[in-house]
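Lecture 7, part 2: worked example. A protein chain together with alpha-L-sorbopyranose.
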Amino acid sequence: MSKKKLNVGIIGYGFMGRTHSNAFRTVNNFFDLEYEPVLKAVCARDGGKAKAFAEQWGYESVETDWKKLIARKDIDLIDIASPNNTHARIAEAAAAAGKMILCEKPLAMNGPQAEAMVKAVEKAKAPNMVWYNYRRVPAVTLAKQLIDEGRLGRIFHYRAKFLQDWTISKDLPQGGAGLWRLDAKVAGSGVTGDLLAHCIDTSLWLNGPIDKVTAMTETFVKERKHNLSGKVEKVSIDDASAFLARFSNGSLATFESTRYARGHKALYTFEINGEHASIFWDLHDLHRLQYFDHRDEGLTRGWRSLHITDSDHPYMKHWWVPGLQIGYEHTFVHQVADFLAGLSTGKPVSPTFREALETQKICDAVLASAKSGQWTNVG
Ligand code: SOE
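Predicted complex, written out as structure tokens:
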């Protein structure tokens, strides 16, 4: 069957530009879908780098102005893989031009900006989705299935952390390519929007809404040289952020993220404790789900280490033979596959901009609480 072509214009060629491009290129090899992404154009201010990226990944053309990309009649979908401070204006213009929109996380710099983006895509009825990719790790998707089936029973605790260590050196500059995550004017916030946003997104999906939070943040290195100005400037991002939360279902939660946990490169873990069963997941061992069920027979009761590689497991029948594992990049492929399948059924695919707005509101509440020292209601 010949596929319906979906012409993609991507903005940005960094780390996320690569993960998304790989997903667009790979998806139809493994998933049987009505739609097929076509890598039409890559857009970035640096024309030389954009051209090199286009050659490497197979994009047909290059633009250096995102407004021109959006104005092109041959582009169906705008994929925003550029820094956070560009998301809102690109998404709003793309929606007004009738494009579909995929946006890298976090959706925006803050809640009000995200709210305007939601209005824009909903007014335009533009299919939209945010790349919170960890939902599509098969083990995490299975966790969702087990919770929805009621296997854990009433949930008491949710515990998540995302730890890194790459900004400990005070000699690391802020700003510019690769280091804009350290510049609050570009990133919006530090680890709250960059890392905790992942933990929050997964938790809302698995455990429902969060009502209130109390948080603390710290900026350990107060000044860094700025790559663009060449001057030493104040650091305004949060280097570390931790908060307590109360979910609407009555469960209690702790969330922690930092870029100062020496030895940890990307340790995202969560544990959920319910009345009957508990679940634990670790990004460093992403194909395993640890599961404890108190209803097991006493003699052999214990934590089970499930290897999520069988064809019964979420997404796995599309890949290799049972027992062979997949990795990080596949989560992006799954996300594109679900988005394309959603175009065929006409159903929105999660997380939509509206769903990602909830994560943004919680990030705002965390930052506000860290400032005021008070419990803060979400939204
Ligand atoms: C930061 O180092 C980062 O790349 C995040 O921006 C990503 O969202 C996360 O998945 C891995 O870490």
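The longest strand covers residues 35-43. The first helix runs from residue 15 to 30. Keep this in mind for problem set question 3.
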